[in-house]
């Protein structure tokens, strides 16, 4: 009875749709086969379709690239197969809210961007390969361009997997424990505090006493302070934009006072 009620509730929840266009569909399938995303698919919260770009080629060799106009090294992905792919996805799966071109030239993907995409219903991800894509893909079908960081991958496939993972975690119900998602450090713009599990000591390396104390308020305060210490040490740039509450601002002052003394 309870399971069927739960299933009905899950079905009533909004489903997020992804369409991924790639010349390496098996690479994407492998990346989606396990973990949180695959469970989200099983529960009907995520609907992910992977499309082989070669399906939209028209020549005998199923060509997806060609030499660049103007000369130079490398190959360029042809525009027509990608444009046709987006048109067919639109016809078969409905009009997407966003058509994302993955490339190092895009806006940098962040937790805030993941949150924005989790708020829309249907995202198409176009994976580039070779030296780049014919610029007309951007002009004709892409609505945005995203990079997952300032480095060059051999293609957009890993970037697409990163985006699907980070966005899916934010779709209600995909991660079982909603609280853990809300408390994710980056959700609040800070790094995470250190975690420990049993045993309490390994070769002299001890778990901090406060975590064994059973004092919930002390544990909470220790964790909040530890997250701030880490962020201050490793990513001071994040402190300026983090959404700190009064307690965290007070803890930050405390850390700074302690440091100026030593
Ligand atoms: N394709 C190649 N490099 C990339 C990057 N950094 N982000 C997204 N797509 C890419």
| Small-molecule binders | adenine
| Morphology | elongated
Ranges with pLDDT <50 over ≥5 residues? Answer: none
Question: How many H/I helical runs?
Answer: 12
pLDDT averaged residue by residue: 94
Radius of gyration: 23 Å
Verbal overview:
With 262 residues, the protein is α/β, with parallel strands linked by helices. The chain contains twelve helices and nine strands. The protein has helices spanning 2-12, 25-32, 36-42, 79-93, 111-118, 136-140, 157-168, 178-183, 209-212, 216-234, 236-241, 246-261, and strands at 16-22, 46-52, 65-66, 76-77, 98-108, 122-127, 144-147, 201-202, 205-206. Strands 2-1-6-5-7 form a five-stranded parallel sheet, sandwiched between helices. A two-stranded antiparallel sheet has the order 3-4. A two-stranded antiparallel sheet has the order 8-9. Strand 8 (201-202) and strand 9 form a beta hairpin. Helix 2 (25-32) runs parallel beside helix 7 (157-168) and helix 5 (111-118) packs across helix 7. The longest helix is centred in the last third of the chain and has 19 residues, at 216-234. The chain is elongated, with a radius of gyration of 23 Å. The N and C termini lie far apart (62 Å). Residues 102-104, 128, 147-149, 151-153, 155-156, 159 line the site of adenine.
Features:
262 residues, alpha/beta, five-stranded parallel β-sheet, two-stranded antiparallel ribbon, 12 helices
What's this model, at a glance?
It contains twelve helices and nine strands.
């Amino acid at each position: 009875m309870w399971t069927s009620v739960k299933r009905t509730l899950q079905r009533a929840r909004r489903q997020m749709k992804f369409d991924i266009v790639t010349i390496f569909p098996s690479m994407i399938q492998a990346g989606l086969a396990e973990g949180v995303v695959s469970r989200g698919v099983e529960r009907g919260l995520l609907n992910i379709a992977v499309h082989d770009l070669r399906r939209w080629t028209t020549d005998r060799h199923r060509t997806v690239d060609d030499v660049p106009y103007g000369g130079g090294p490398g190959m360029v992905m042809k525009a027509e197969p990608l444009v046709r792919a987006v048109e067919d996805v639109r016809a078969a799966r409905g009009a997407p809210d966003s058509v994302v071109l993955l490339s190092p030239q895009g806006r940098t993907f962040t937790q805030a961007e993941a949150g924005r995409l989790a708020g829309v219903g249907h995202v198409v991800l176009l994976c580039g390969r070779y030296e780049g894509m014919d610029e007309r893909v951007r002009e004709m079908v892409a609505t945005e361009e995203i990079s997952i960081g300032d480095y060059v991958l051999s293609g957009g496939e890993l970037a697409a997997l990163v985006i699907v993972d980070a966005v899916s975690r934010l779709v209600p119900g995909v991660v079982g424990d909603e609280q853990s998602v809300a408390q994710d450090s980056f959700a609040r713009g800070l790094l995470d505090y250190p975690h420990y599990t049993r045993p309490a000591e390994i070769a002299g390396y001890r778990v901090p006493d406060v975590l064994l104390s059973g004092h919930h308020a002390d544990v909470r305060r220790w964790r909040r302070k530890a997250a701030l210490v880490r962020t201050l040490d490793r990513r001071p740039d994040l402190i300026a934009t983090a959404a700190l509450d009064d307690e965290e601002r007070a803890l930050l002052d405390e850390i700074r006072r302690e440091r100026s003394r030593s």
